[in-house]
Amino acid sequence: DTGVSQDPRHKITKRGQNVTFRCDPISEHNRLYWYRQTLGQGPEFLTYFQNEAQLEKSRLLSDRFSAERPKGSFSTLEIQRTEQGDSAMYLCASSFDQQPQHFGDGTRLSIL
Amino acid sequence: AQSVTQLGSHVSVSEGALVLLRCNYSSSVPPYLFWYVQYPNQGLQLLLKYTSAATLVKGINGFEAEFKKSETSFHLTKPSAHMSDAAEYFCAVSDRGGKLIFGQGTELSVKP
Q: Mean of the pLDDT values across residues B72-92?
């Protein structure tokens, strides 16, 4: 068990640019979740996958956001045309079915 | 819809004193309840979970929580605080579909 890995740990970009984050879950976990956490708040659910199928998306996930998990292993979260309000910590978590979720250390996004 | 309310955004205790962090939940179905801890610039670590078995749940690092259905509460306690317990604590609820709904968090400070 090597844990959930997220890359990069920090991303600084200019407003209007596109960014992509990667999450590598624990290898035997079939579920993968994305959350967003802003300063002083609890994480908010964005979306989740069971294997390669995206089963639920939050209304927080605007059209500028897209997530994929093409082979049921790693996942990517892309944000197009970034805005100031996208600045946050993006957390990935994985689990086996309904077992408790294991979190990565997150990707901190800063929009200049 | 499910929700979580954590009473007190900041709690300060002396080393060796009782830790009590409060969490109330709302759920239309029997909930799964969790406490997670977050250290600066890190992801979330599971402290303990309630999944409809014993109402008193013991977790890691000496923490425990009691599920009280009549009060819709799941408060976190530790008999004796240690300096290393200083962190942000999050209560979360799940409807067994997997996604977690988090409270706003409680920052615990421990004074020497």
A: 97
Q: Identify the burial level of A42 via C-beta atoms within 10 angstroms of its C-beta, where 0-12 means exposed, 13-18 middle and 19 or more buried.
A: buried
The answer to whether B25 and B93 have CB atoms below 8 angstroms apart is yes
Residue of B nearest to A90 (CA): B43
- Helix, strand, or coil here: B62? helix
Residue A105 binned pLDDT confidence (cut-offs 50, 70, 90):
very high
Task: Enumerate the β-bridge partners of residue A53.
Answer: A50
- Across the A:B interface, residue pairs with CB atoms under 8 Å apart total 57
Residue B15 and residue B111 in contact, taking contact as beta carbons nearer than 8 Å:
yes
pLDDT score recorded for residue A6: 97
Q: Do A42 and B32 touch (CB under 8 A)?
A: no
Q: Measuring CA to CA, which residue among A81, A80, A78, A62 is closest to residue A16?
A: A81
The rounded distance, in Å, linking the Cα atoms of B3 and B8 is 16
Cβ count within 10 A of residue B36: 25
pLDDT tier, A1 (very low <50, low <70, confident <90, very high otherwise) = low
Cβ of B100 within 8 Å of Cβ of A106? The answer is no
Count of beta carbons in the 10 Å neighbourhood of residue A55: 13
